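Appendix B. Raw example, untouched.
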Amino acid sequence: MNLRDILAEFACEKDCIIGVTGAGELEEIRIKLESADTPFVVDDVVARTTPTCELGGCKSIIVIGVPYGKYFSGIIDELPRGKQTVMLASRDYHEVLREMLEELANHLRNYIDFSYKIQIDNGKLYEREIARRAGFGFYGYNHLLISPVIGSYFNIGLMLVDIEIPPDSPIEQMTCEGCGECIANCPGNALAKGQPLNWRRCISYITQKKGELSQEEAVILGTNIYGCDVCQQVCPYNNGKLCSKTEDIEFIYPDLQQLINMDDEAFTRRYGNTSAGWRGRKVIQRNALIAMANSYVE
């Protein structure tokens, strides 16, 4: 069995997508990054676009995409409630993808010896561009990577390896031309065709930034507590892609008063195993207080 067959078998078993790309520099995206001003990432453009900076001797990059999120299937009551990304209805993707990639590495080592390094949204490399090169999909007007297989509701993990694996080809024929639903429906007006994301008006960013929010940011926040899925919810490529459901309303529409009253222990119980745990209780409670005020305005 060759390595590509092993990867395909693993993807089928784990219900994820897997692609491979070479370890060449990300030259196409480097110019854009040099002029970008993006939060929560390192400023070193060379490090973000040069895989060999992360793993000396890197020859290939294995990329996995794991679907996330559940939709709420129950009835929303009359309590003041906030809104959260559907990602919080699943276990912290950093842990999920790392475990999956470690399992894959151990499995591959039954066939070939190699060195590797794993990155999941916490390293320097520009993961989305690497996934695009590995044939995962194309950039939508919402700046997310859209896969023809699983839409945009997925997280990306990388495994840099020092062995050569036949690469996949990028997808060229899919576009958002003629649509624009995400642009029209973005609550913060953060999107425009052919323009960089105005992240300062993006709800997902605003819910995660530290410190006090300006009056304008508080208005944009609305009743959102962590993240925002609107640009994905309205995307035609995501129709039918969010198939898992939850009947626990607190994952996606949390009780605002409970959030305002929670102590550190309650925060850990609620958020400790989610991808929002890193941001801390103070930011979540700040958002809950603003959301409570905004809920009365709405």
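End of appendix B.
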